[in-house]
Amino acid sequence: MISSPCCRIVRSYYLGNSGTFHSRLAALCPSYIKVPNSHARIFVTKLRQTNRPHSSFIIDTKKTTQRVLGSSKVQTDLDDILKDQSASVQLKLVDAYRKGFQSSTEKEKASKKWETLVAYFAKFVVTGVCLYCIFKVSNKMFGGAFPKVLDPSVASFAENADVNFGDVQGCDEVKKELQDIVEFLRNPEKFNHIGAKLPKGVLLVGPPGVGKTLLAKAVSGEAQVPFLYVSGSSFEEVFVGLGASRVRQLFAAAKQNSPCLIFIDEIDSVGRNRTSSPHHPYANQTINQLLAEMDGFQSTEGIIVLGATNQAEDLDKALLRPGRFDVQIFVSPPTYEGRMALLSLYLRKVKTGPNIDIEKLAHGTVGYTGADIQNLVNQAAIAAGLHNDPVVEMHHLWEARDRLIMGPAKRRPMDDQTNRVSAFHEAGHALVALLTPDSTPLHKVCGFIFHLIMTLFLCYSSSCKLSFLCTVRFLRSHN
């Protein structure tokens, strides 16, 4: 037996004729009959009113159906509406209930699908508008930084026509080593005829400021080949796979402009030792791609990779093997002769007085790199301008050296007793340096107040060369 309010109406009419109830019910209700919805109930109430034309009581069909929809006594309400109806009317109502409910269900399903499509379309539009606003704001506020993150091209061709080995001073041994690379790039056929292979990579190792970048530019300028420059930090990716994509773009650009020189500055930021941590499974993609590219192109393509770093111990061992970086060159700070050459080079670019003594300056700048000497000359020129002097004098250079070593002097008055005691103390150092055999020659004694608010008297000593061998008497003189 099917339990439904409509079936109960039919059952109440056919209880006296039980033999025909099931067959007639199956003919009238071939599908499962459910509780009618609002549309079906409106149709039923209207039909009831048309069958009772003489009734003075008119039913509010909309209100009645809504009340029935929210009531749990659906059967009682429907029996009340259909009371005193004939059998033919009840059969019509059963058919109307079934057809009305089924048609409204299909409409509800179609409307739900349409509402789902509209909701997804609205989300898509809102997401697109948000991304568009983010790109626009990044272009205005950050100079287009966000779109550049997605840009796989990070390398640029540097200007190198006006840079040669004559512009690089203080590292003659390194220039001699790099001259061989220049010869490879100039005449590759000569070496290929003999059977020699062009080196794939040259690693420049040295402290900051010794001129590794300038040396790489000089190699490209001497060989007259394109110079492709990229910083190692440019390969650091925000999204997975972007760093490896940038490596591929770099070598693709080099192959299109072969013979070419690729210079990767601060290569330790991209070529560090690979990690085996399971928490970062994609951390090695960039260096793996770099290893594959360096060992993937043929040596006859005329592509040489120059790398510069001051932390060679952090590089991956696979990157340093022959076949990738075949040659490693250590670039050390300049010697006494190198410092003289660097001072002459940079002093020619400023107006100097006649009393400039380059030899004394070279004695007083032991351990200085090329960048330090360039900064020294520039600071001296700034000091001359601040004092309204037309040219750079010797005292400007000494003042610049003191400023670079210990910072700017503070013009704060100190009591006479402190100055007197400090002067006696430093004078003792000066006398010991003068009277001790094999001691470093005394150069200068000065006193000033520096940033720790102390009176400092210094004894400057100088040596014409940087030596790694010391005698016992020399060590005792500095005891």
Automatic annotation (TrEMBL):
InterPro entries: AAA+_ATPase, AAA_lid_3, ATPase_AAA_core, ATPase_AAA_CS, P-loop_NTPase, Peptidase_M41-like. SUPFAM superfamilies: FtsH protease domain-like, P-loop containing nucleoside triphosphate hydrolases. Residues 198-335 form the AAA+ ATPase domain. One of its GO terms (molecular function) is metalloendopeptidase activity. It holds the Pfam family AAA. Keywords: ATP-binding, Hydrolase, Membrane, Metal-binding, Metalloprotease, Nucleotide-binding, Protease, Transmembrane, Transmembrane helix, Zinc. It is found in: Membrane. Its main location: membrane. Its cofactor is Zn(2+). GO terms for biological process: mitochondrion organization; protein quality control for misfolded or incompletely synthesized proteins; PSII associated light-harvesting complex II catabolic process. It comes from the Eukaryota. In the C-terminal section; belongs to the peptidase M41 family. In the N-terminal section; belongs to the AAA ATPase family. This is ATP-dependent zinc metalloprotease YME1 isoform 1. It comes from Schistosoma japonicum (Blood fluke).
